[in-house]
Amino acid sequence: MPRLQLFFIYSLDAKSVGVKLGILGLGTVGTGTVQLLQDTAGRHPLLKEIEIYRVGVRSLSKPRQVELSTGVVTTDLEAIVNDPEIDIIVEVMGGLEPARTLILTAIKNGKHVVTANKAAISRFGAEIFTAANQAGVYVMLEAAVGGGIPVIQPLKQSLSVNRIHGITGIVNGTTNYILTRMQTEGSDFNDVLADAQRLGYAEADPTADIDGLDAADKIAILASLGFDGRINLQDVYCEGIRQVSKTDISYAAKLGFVIKLLAIAKHQTSDHSQLSVRVHPTLVPQTHPLASINGVYNAILVEGEPIGQVMFFGPGAGAGATASAVCSDILNLVATLKTNTPKSNPLLACRHENYLQITPISELVTRFYARFLTKDQPSVIGKLGTCFGKYGVSLESVVQTGFQAQLAEIVVVTHDVREGDFRQALAEIETLEAIDSIPSILRVI
Amino acid sequence: MPRLQLFFIYSLDAKSVGVKLGILGLGTVGTGTVQLLQDTAGRHPLLKEIEIYRVGVRSLSKPRQVELSTGVVTTDLEAIVNDPEIDIIVEVMGGLEPARTLILTAIKNGKHVVTANKAAISRFGAEIFTAANQAGVYVMLEAAVGGGIPVIQPLKQSLSVNRIHGITGIVNGTTNYILTRMQTEGSDFNDVLADAQRLGYAEADPTADIDGLDAADKIAILASLGFDGRINLQDVYCEGIRQVSKTDISYAAKLGFVIKLLAIAKHQTSDHSQLSVRVHPTLVPQTHPLASINGVYNAILVEGEPIGQVMFFGPGAGAGATASAVCSDILNLVATLKTNTPKSNPLLACRHENYLQITPISELVTRFYARFLTKDQPSVIGKLGTCFGKYGVSLESVVQTGFQAQLAEIVVVTHDVREGDFRQALAEIETLEAIDSIPSILRVI
Questions:
Q1: Which residues bind NADP(+) (chains A, B) (predicted)?
Q2: Which pTM value belongs to this model?
């Protein structure tokens, strides 16, 4: 590396008062961000050099929890991303459009971007990062995954000296809250969901959370960083928690497991040729680090070589926690702007151009949990075993208990099996006369 | 901020092959670091630009697990820190001297430093960082605390937008391993220690671990980053685990606690005027996030506003994990060198000059656990209560069980009390005729 460098820098630095922000959106996260930036005592001193220059909102008449000077708040969001005075755009409005267009315009105008928008990044990341690299600006997204938990930056920086083997996360607080309550109270999914909606832990339309779509957005982002390439969101297998019953939670507990909605990105083979990225309810051994993550908390477990396992735990949502992540990205950009750096920092920029090949779910190799309702025939376990054996499915444990309306209940946990083979075995088992139904099929980690 | 800047850069960049490292020490961590840097496929591409230029060792004849070209390995450590070709010094030799002198010489020579040396940093940090700031170089220390867990960088960067209220860690793997085994096996401290030494989890001279000195070094470093000032190591109260008995572990369990060696830096009052920094065995509620951190694992819980609680968990030691941290620091420096930045990055540099005022342990306000052996007198609990009351100590729970050689055993847990008051009460209680002895006094979180 060069030991001798001469720099001649002409900057307009002397007159400038600070870094100017344009904030798009003044909802929960936007309000939290403004509150943090307006109350800097006891925080990093660099925050004092930030000026909230414009805040874009949908309605000027809506009552706000923060005070902003006249002229700062505007409904003209396009004017903000086109304002030459503004250095950094903070996109905390959410949704796909106009967020995407505003981000792209800001980038085209040479502005750095901080966003909390997992939906837009997981769908338009390729377009956004390509534009950012061309314009020589940074797009920062710590708040997009895990709320306040610092996980994006560690993955991009500290942990990137490792070969990442897997990223496994509880990244959706709503579903974790529901599953935790179902577990501790023995309640039904629908009852807990209704109560969670009443308490504000679940949205009126809970689809994005409950069906795993939010978690899929997040694991796509984490996988992209951990495995060094772009992810096509359509390749992420996604299954929500609507089908998880209190019966299964109770069987799982007897077998030494808890049920969690996990978002998983993992190399399936040691030669790293097969990467599986998926979201589904999962039986997690009670001794697993993720098993004790309860309520609205999030946790992300990263496995790599040589580090082994590290886990990041914290609040996955909320105004304050998310504002912490947004402001940490702003701080990082301000620090970078302060260095007057002529070249972009390779640890802040996005460096992926290739798309990652994702293994289809039928090729996944995993353990399964399945619950069968069977007619009360003495040979039914034998028949199940024969059918499983035919497709190479071997069983780790079989539990036969309980009767519901003349039906026996059989629960099996398999050894590792290719999902396609397991599904074929199930299809054949379903045709057996002794089988009434297969109410649950869940994967086991 | 300036929108217009002109840079004229004359650098010798074109000819340079990469960033040159001088590594001091080729023990466990040094070997792990060299192995990682020699095997870069699948890791961050920037690692390929690093050249292991010199490695300083004590003995050339010792067999090594890594191959290095002729001329790279040398016993002349001073020549390494004075070599003008070298950009970064990686100090992984440990110990106080000559590590301190070599680091200071490297800094004086304009070299950036990566160190895993918690003992040197906690003692000579002020001197080292002052020198580094004067020379305009960075001193990076991710590996000094928590092995591979990224915690130094999050504290310096992401989390620094928060007002930090407390940092609480299990930062010594040896003592956590011993306490975990005492707990699960019901064994005595001395037996587990002997076995841990046999298995290589504890050193032949276990003092630094067992007596909490290693944890004190680490919490001094964490506190300095979290609370933004220098720490005088002498101000850190330190108590090890030699006195923790299986009896206390068993009583704690009955009361809903586990016993952990915690390293704590915490604002005691809401006005942040009193900062307490300390290491001691602690009763931790079984539901606390740190209660389930077992074996050689480390975890650091950070509490702040507005983030709430975040926790970092992972392997606290070991060649691979520590090498991951060392290399993440090297990567960060390489990235910074690549940007040809004319100004130092305020998020990488150390910004503390003031010393933090640490509250003496007598001023600590905490709950206590105490175990008394008393003569079998009917009024003994009453006498204890009277004496505690006199000094403002109120009791949360009192358990009287068991008899050992005609003595009754009484265990109390207090409400929050000023430690000085509690000690005065104990001094008076010790003089009571009914009291045989006070075998254990532990703090409760």
A1: 24-31
A2: 0.93
